[in-house]
Amino acid sequence: MQHRSIAIDGPSGAGKSTLARRLAQALGYLYVDTGAIYRTVGLAAYREQIPLEEEAVARLLPSLDIKMCYGEDGLQHMFLHGEDVTEAIRQHEVSDYTSTVSAFPAVRSFLLDMQRRLAREQDVIMDGRDIGTVVLPQADLKIFLTASPQARARRRCLELRQRGQQADEGQVLRDVLERDRRDMERESAPLRQSDDAVVVDTTQKDLEESFAVMLALIRRTLNIEEGHSHV
């Protein structure tokens, strides 16, 4: 059986994870949050205070026990050495580590096989920075999800505050712009829009509007009838 794959790429804070998760539930697809996988590596490096150099991080990789599973809540949970780190990987400090270590070719190669295997075994919606360009270049549909830096910073602040963390919008905006720069300029798998991707800009759309636009796009492109889920 030929499985279908949907790649959603875009900058940090565009809403990729939230929307991809809801779309996967609506369609009966498996949602794969690749950012969470990279964040788990970032968390490991952060906890070990590994120098942010590729050689040092590469030495850490063989010792990492990273697993991904889906809980009764239907959400993807990340485990590091047997510990559920689903919440820990979302800490603001871990984001900075993740942005740097995820650019290292050694890290991307280490995690590439895991991501491609999931797409071979089931229908998936996968989101990240280079899904359509590197991980799943033959995806049935590629979406580039974006929003203005200011809108993404506001959303990030709200997310952090909802988790009980302090957030200064000015600092978060500077962090968003810096992360965009690093993600776009890195040598290995930089953030860029695939030539055959459909651009969806959520700057002026709330979550429900963005979801409706993307669900209609997927159903139209993949010829999925409304009310039908592919399970």
Provide the spatial order of strands within the biggest beta sheet: 2-6-1-7-8
CATH topology: Rossmann fold
Question: Beta-sheet strand percentage?
Answer: 15-25%
Report the end-to-end length measured between terminal Cα atoms.
12 Å
What would you note in describing this structure?
- With 231 residues, this protein is an alpha/beta fold.
- The protein has one domain: P-loop containing nucleotide triphosphate hydrolases (Rossmann fold, 3-Layer(aba) Sandwich), CATH 3.40.50.
- It contains nine helices and eight strands.
- It has helices at 16-27, 34-48, 54-60, 92-101, 105-121, 131-135, 149-162, 169-185, 207-222; strands at 5-9, 30-33, 66-70, 76-80, 83-84, 124-128, 141-146, 198-201.
- The strands form two sheets. It has a five-stranded parallel beta sheet with strand order 2-6-1-7-8, sandwiched between helices.
- Helix 2 packs across helix 4 (92-101), helix 2 (34-48) packs antiparallel against helix 5 (105-121) and helix 7 (149-162) packs across helix 8 (169-185).
- It starts with a strand and ends in a 9-residue tail after the last helix.
- 37% of the residues are buried.
- The model has no long low-confidence stretch (mean pLDDT 90).
